Amino acid sequence: MPTRRQFLSLAGGVTVIPVLTLRPLDATPAMLNTAIRNVVGEAPIRTGKVKLDIPPLVENGNTVPMTVSVASPMTLDDYVKSIHVFNEKNPQPNIGNFYLTPSSGRAQISTRIRLADTQKVVAIARLSDDSFWQVSADIVVTLAACTEELN
């Protein structure tokens, strides 16, 4: 029968501490297409009516200014129901969903986003007639965001 001191000595020598490395999933263009289809379903997506104001070259992907506006009178009969913003390479492809009503006044949203790497950003607007309109932009990021690894 080992003594307490011997047991602790042996236990200390064989203790294994697992080290977890958490990394974000590697995003793919297929994930972007899936995220878009989750919002629009099988509806056709047209190009036009939507304007994406985002710098084509950003130094730091941690805070990228972005404005999405849609050509709409924002009346009770003709307005933008929602604006959805997606990206190609971030761990989560859906950046945000913004819901509007005719009383919103303007069909425009402004925010700052994080971009993990050089990638495509897509903005899709759903109008009151349930049509979908899109615009996309390719953004070059020199200092990536969303890539921190925890050890």
From TrEMBL:
PROSITE patterns: TAT (PS51318). Transmembrane segments: none annotated. Residues 37-146 form the Ig-like SoxY domain. It comes from the Bacteria. InterPro entries: SoxY (IPR032711), SoxY_para_1 (IPR030997), SoxY_sf (IPR038162), Sulphur_oxidation_SoxY (IPR016568), TAT_signal (IPR006311). Coiled coil: none annotated. This is SoxY-related AACIE arm protein. The lineage of its organism: Bacteria, Pseudomonadati, Pseudomonadota, Alphaproteobacteria, Hyphomicrobiales.
